[in-house]
Fold these 4 entries.
Entry 1:
Amino acid sequence: MDLRTFLMLLHLCEGIGNANELRVAAFLRIYQRLPTKNELTQLLKLAPEKSHKLIAQLECAELVEQLRANLQVSQVVTILDQDYPLKLRESFRPPAVLFYQGKLALLKKPYLAIVGARQADAYALAALTKLLKPVLAKGIVTISGLAKGVDALCHQLTLAANQSTIGVIGTGLDSAYPRQNRNLQTKVAKTGLLLSEYPLGAPPLCHHFPERNRIIAGLCDSILVVEARHHSGSLITANLALQNNRNVLAVPGKITSDISCGCNELIAAGAKLVSQPDDILAEFANQLI
């Protein structure tokens, strides 16, 4: 078995965890061989019973069938691969394995993450309509999470401009959450890039979405927040981006609006206020030369 396949199978094991995957991936990269059972047990940092159970999963034919099923409908990039995106590799807890549909080459372009409120209003639509067209015309790729609200607006406006967008989801690639975004997700996969850390059949569990957000924060060059509540998931994503040394930008909102208070707080804390497309383009000046 080659190293890459071993890592993919390990990723499918129940209870493996990102930290354990990264330790094993580091071993594979350094030693260029598979670990022995004893070495794998030491790497996993699990209780003996859990470790033995996980190693037994690796030897199960059903796991190989599960991987084969995933590879029939998607492609895979692992942290061992040369085309794994460098920014993500260097980010906080990078995923060891990503399933994808679409154009992986988009990850070599400059990209802007756009996040915000699920209950986005007409102001978010007006702001993104004003800001995005000149940005997209420069070849900047948008990234968002295919949720309702600002995420969906980001993808829709990018596609309407015949430009490329990347969707990072918190389910398997065979699922859409919310369901009303199924057609939008299909379009993103066909014309851009659809990414997920999760294999086929993975449901939209609550903890999947903060994990998805860390990938968005790790992939982007800059992140733009458009309408966000206090203590919202969008602010968590912005903070993760900041930890990864990314530029954090925010669209200011009404002081009377609950869904704008998060953006106003970001600006007060030092995020760049965005009111014109040039405010965004300035962050990509070195990449657009």
Entry 2:
Amino acid sequence: MTEFQQGWREFHIHDTVAAAAKEGRTSADDGNNQDEEDVIYASGINLFGNIQEEEEEETMHFSFPVAEAGGCDESTRSAVVVAAAEKKNIEVTLKGFSDYTQSTGLAVWLGSEILARFMARHPYLIRGKTVMELGSGLGLAGITSHHLDSKTSVLTDGDSLVLNDYLKFNANQNDRRQQDTIGGDGHPGAIECHQLIWGHRGQSNGQSPLAQFRKKYGQFDVILAADCTYIPQSVEPFWETIDFLLDTEVTGKDDDTAHGITPAKSPSTPKVIYVMEASTQAKFEDILDSAKLRGFEWTIDTMPSLYEKDETPQDSQKEHEIYTFWRSRCS
């Protein structure tokens, strides 16, 4: 895959949407999807050109232990130590490809699994919240948030092939509302999929697709992102989208301060949970600088490596980093 192909979904599609808007075509209001692959093929670029015809789709299974009472207890506002006996597992099944080097958005990237495991360790950050995932791909992180009792989980991707052929299928087959046995209070939240083009480029009926998306869904308590800022040009639209869609309301701030609970670990603070494990042309310091310019602070959590020691001994010694961002005024 060329560098240009790798960055297509996050940046060049903005020009596609702008052109479509000039022609009076839009997708946000009626739920239809901008056919960006038409433009890709017309340009002689096949985003998924590395997928060989003989490759077959796989069914992948993931199981994450959940700290049922982990983190901040709402009744005591204090840290809770979770015993092993108090844990359960989340089970997620996905259709797609396991080799992300061959299939970009049609595979599960390592960052998504790390993000899913982090949420399972801190379920109080997700429970009862409105959640959106950017660059969902096959949807592992967003589906995990749904199983952690989010109020709503909206999974988004800019590529309509990924969205229509994989993301919607995976969300539907993991929808707790479709399952016979439902835990918790018996009323699982909604899970939806929608195309989302980052940034405010492109106008139709006086609004960008991003503005139309916010008109439909509102703002979110938690925004998830993993391995989805490939090129430098994607960084600003990425943060522009987050800044526009992340909620600004904070509840329980004084109570959090009194009990020494940081914004990153407070259920009351709107936040972005971000993991970047994949190789990228975008410099990570530029990603952080862009966040800072928009008034975000952050903290870093770590997790033990998910790499197999026998297969990748060097990588197995590394810890994975999970960034949690929040607006400075929420501190």
Entry 3:
Amino acid sequence: MADPRHAQRGPGRRAGVTAFACAGLAFGMIGLAFASVPLYDMFCKATGYDGTPRTGLAPTVAAIDDSMVVHFDTNVASSLPWRFQAESPKVEARLGETKTVFFRVKNTGTTPSTGIATFNVQPGLMGSFFVKVQCFCFNEQTLQPGETMDFPVVFYIDPEVRKDSNTAHLSEMTLSYTYFASKNGQPTAALATTGGTGTKSNF
């Protein structure tokens, strides 16, 4: 005959195991959610997915006699009292050739402020072929009132762009930056106030 005490403990033990498993699953899902953001960011930077430019070293292939015009779009979120512009609104870049372009930012406010820039390329398919060698994006920058700083962007366009049927016909692209106020190393807003694509600030 079965011991009734064992029969009573059985359901309780199973309930405890189930609760423990559910708690472990919940904590695991939370950890995965936190980890997915940097993992997704790394994936985009490595592959150029979702319009995110690749990051890499200097080109390993020779430049070819073909080029694309790269337009620069600079924007600043309304919460940050900065002016921001590229030294030139556009450049013509030979495929496979390293180009350096400087961007200037100025704090027009009356107190020190810290900003961080996000970026994207359009059309999004160019993210796989636009390679940043050096960039100020995602680095916090603190400017004193009235201070102006220049930051370089070094890049090249992979000649493989002409071998992809989706991009072979393209002659122009846009590299877009938006500066946001920074808190704990992260942009504080998801939307920027701009005067339209390509809007530049006069110093």
Entry 4:
Amino acid sequence: VAIVGGIEGVAIVGGIENVAIVGGIEGADIVASIENVAIVAGTENVAIVGGIENVAIVGGIENVAIVAGIEDAAIVGGIEDAAIVGGIENVAIVGGIEDAAIVGGIEGVAIVGGIEDAAIVGGIEGVATVGGIEAVPIVGGIENVAIVGGIEDVAIVGGIEKVAIVGGIEGADIVGGIEGVAIVGGIEDAAIVG
């Protein structure tokens, strides 16, 4: 384990293997076994409360809680008040997200625009949404879906495969297990709960 930055008020409460913390961390709790995790930016008030494997957090993070097993997930943007509360595998979030909750299984879906308070709640296959969306509920299973425009008031509440969130998201809920998802942008008040 390499801790390479100033750390204040940090509790590491589980077995850790090959973890690199490369930025200043303040008030962070790491409360589970962690393997091959790299935290490469300034982090404040972050709690990592589950088994994590091969996770890279590469942006400034404030008040973020990661509360479940995560495998091969990359968080590559600024995150504020985000909660990741479920098992996540190969997930990338690639845009600014504010007040978003990810609360279901997601695999192979791409959300490539700003999203605010949108609800996607069902099975969808091969769907591309390429424009601004406001307060839209999508109510079914989702597979290989691309959302490529601004979205407001969106909730994603079902199993999703291969999902990429590549834009700003505000007040969105993604509620299930997530696989192959990339979160690559600033996130504020986001919850990933599957």
